[in-house]
Amino acid sequence: MSHSVIMLGTGSPRLNTERLSSASLLQMEDVPILVDCGEGATMQLVKAGVPPQKVKHVFFTHLHADHMLGYANFLISGWVEGRRELTIVGPVGTKKMHDLLIEMLEDDIEYRMSLGRPEAGIRDVKVIEIEEPGHVDVELPMEIHCARMIHNVPTYAYRFEKEGVSVVFSGDTAPPTDELVKLAQGANLLIHDSALTRIEGDQMTNASKIWENLQKEHCTPAQAAETARRANVDQLVLTHFLPKMDPKQAMVDAAEVFNGKIIIPKDLDIIQVAVKSPVN
Ligand SMILES: [Zn+2]
Ligand SMILES: [Zn+2]
Q1: Which of the ligands is closest to the CA of residue 217?
Q2: How many domains does the chain have?
Q3: Proximal ligand: closest to the CA of 38
Q4: Rounded distance from Cα 75 to ligand 1 centre (Å)
Q5: Key word Nuclease present in the record (predicted)?
Q6: Cα 193 to middle of ligand 1, angstroms
Q7: Which ligand is located closest to the Cα atom of residue 155?
């Protein structure tokens, strides 16, 4: 049994040629699930060798631009390439976002249908909006739970679990992360917001005000590591990085708190979900 996560976008809303905004592809055995869909996610899938039309499930942690701006392209390109079914999951507002995109793309969809493409995969997209944290009811061969995070719009972390192997995505969150600690308890892999890395020479004139606000919406590497330690996870992956972040410093900051394996990925890195063999 093999599970992996392709880090399609490890960046933030800040423009960065090295790191695109948030998107990850979870592959639980042969089931690909896109978690967030920042700008460029579809082309990152292609670069990673995953045909976008094979992805039939998208989970949005929340609807900030850096987590959904790539969805319009995914929606159309995947269908044009042959996707014939799609389910999307996200907080309340996901249906409105999807419907607005469909409306915006109406002429394009009509034109492509006039060339013979079917309605399936574009007009019959199933949208599941989460109203309460807990079990997420989606037709997939795994258990999925979510928990509410601390951010400035409704945001959910997701736990995907199959035959005792579990992967958790935090989405964006500020501490305290008690709900995330519960959700991620004993997980094999925790992918955690770590936007608040130290950055040098930031040129933004209002950087200090933005930075002050960010403290209420995101975590530092040490705070992410604290969640990983309290949740007793095997591996911690830090992500959602600002430009000019220092990966070495982020690693030092996290490793002071968490003894398990810590990964600071680049875009398109593939992380294997390590499964501990049972201790007899
Ligand atoms: Zn956000
Ligand atoms: Zn974000």
Answers
A1: 1
A2: 1
A3: 2
A4: 21
A5: yes
A6: 10
A7: 1
Residue 277 lies inside a defined structural domain of this protein? no
Residue 80 lies in a domain: yes
Residue 279 lies in a domain: no
Considering the domain boundaries, does residue 278 fall inside one?
no
* Tens digits of residue pLDDT in 123-176: 999 999 999 999 999 999 999 999 999 999 999 999 999 999 999 999 999 998
Q: Is the pLDDT of residue 71 over 60?
A: yes
What is the DSSP secondary-structure string of the chain? --EEEEEEE---SS--SS--SSEEEEEETTEEEEEEE-TTHHHHHHHTT--GGG--EEE-S---HHHHTTHHHHHHHHHHTT----EEEEETTHHHHHHHHHHHTHHHHHHHHHTT--STTTTS-EEEEE-SSEE---SSSSEEEEEE--SSS--EEEEEEETTEEEEE--S-PSP-HHHHHHTTT-SEEEEE-----BSS---TTHHHHHHHHTTT---HHHHHHHHHHHT-SEEEEE-PPTTB-HHHHHHHHHTT--SEEE-PPTT-EEE---PPPP-
Residues near ligand 2 ion, CB 5 Å cutoff: 66, 172
C-alpha of residue 174 to centroid of ligand 1, in Å:
10
CATH code (residue 236): 3.60.15.10
Question: Could you read off the pLDDT of 203-215 as tens digits, one per residue?
Answer: 555 567 777 788 8
